[in-house]
Specification:
Layout (H helix, E strand, L loop, with lengths): L2 H13 L4 H8 L4 E4 L2 E4 L2 H5 L5 E2 L5 H13 L4 E4 L3 H10 L4 E3 L4 E4 L11 E6 L5 H13 L3 E5 L7 H5 L2 H6 L2 E6 L5 H6 L6 E5 L11 H8 L6 E3 L5 H12 L2
Parallel strand pairs: 3-4, 7-8, 7-9, 9-10, 10-11
Antiparallel strand pairs: 1-2, 4-6, 5-6
Helix pairs in contact: 4-5, 6-11
Length: 249
């Protein structure tokens, strides 16, 4: 159940096309549906504006299939993050309608093109090619949430002229996600160039003293650019979720 379906149901009750008992029956499944090993939140889209997304990394293929069927049974699209290729293949055997994107590790059941629900352009920027998997997750999630997304790749501070060549694109965006590893300096630079929210995503990319992304995380948390906020290491999904809420304002 999402806000649009809820409004449609209530309008049908008001017009007399659906009686009160039928409407009550449809709403009786709220706020969750029991599946094997999970209670699937079917009410989240009404509360938060974005439906439940399934974290697939620690789930078995069978658990993913059960949760996906529960969501589809309630008329919801299905987005599963952090799905490896082997697991995706097994899920696809049970759910042939599922679409898998290997670069982002996202599994999707829903329309090929999601209607635009957000106001402006959503820009994802990467410092280097090694940051691409996390950026792909952010881009894929953002598109499934109804954003218009642009991707600007490999513009890290080691070659700042590459970034400055794209100032027009940066300034046109309504919200910017910046994905960077190593020392994590790029979000601060971009924050000083734009008047929009900048969501920094530290990645686990880097040599020994980067400590698996901790150096980048701490650098981003202590950014001197006041419009920069930071999510957890490699969390492209979380960045896309928050940026979507900003882009809908």
């Amino acid at each position: 159940m999402d806000p649009e379906r809820l409004r449609t149901l209530l309008e049908s009750v008001r017009s007399g096309d659906v009686d009160v008992a039928q409407a009550a029956e449809r709403l009786s499944v709220l706020p969750f549906v029991d599946a094997v090993g999970a209670r699937v939140d079917t009410h989240r889209a009404i509360r938060q504006g974005i439906p439940e997304v399934v974290y697939g990394a620690e789930k078995t293929p069978g658990q993913i299939v059960e949760v996906a069927r529960a969501l589809r049974g309630e008329g919801q699209d299905v987005l599963v993050t952090r799905v490896d290729p082997v697991k995706a293949e097994r899920v696809g055997e049970a759910l042939p309608e599922a679409e898998y994107e290997g670069s982002s590790r996202l599994l999707w059941i829903g329309p090929e093109e999601v209607p635009r629900r957000c106001k402006g352009t959503f820009l994802v920027v990467t410092a280097g090619t090694a940051d691409a998997p996390v950026a792909s997750e952010a881009v894929g999630v953002a598109r499934r949430f109804g954003n218009k997304v642009e991707l600007l790749e490999d513009v890290g501070v080691a070659g700042l002229h590459r970034l400055l060549a794209s100032l027009e694109l940066l300034r046109a965006a309504r919200v910017v996600i910046v994905v960077a590893g190593m020392e994590g300096a790029l979000p601060s630079v971009i924050g000083g160039l734009v008047d929009k929210p900048v969501i920094a995503v530290p990645t686990s990319v880097g040599y020994g003293a980067s400590l698996g992304g901790i150096a980048a995380l701490l650098g981003m948390l202590t950014s001197c650019a006041s419009n920069v906020t930071t999510v957890n290491i490699d969390n492209g999904f979380g960045a896309a979720h928050v940026a979507t809420l900003i882009n809908r304002l």
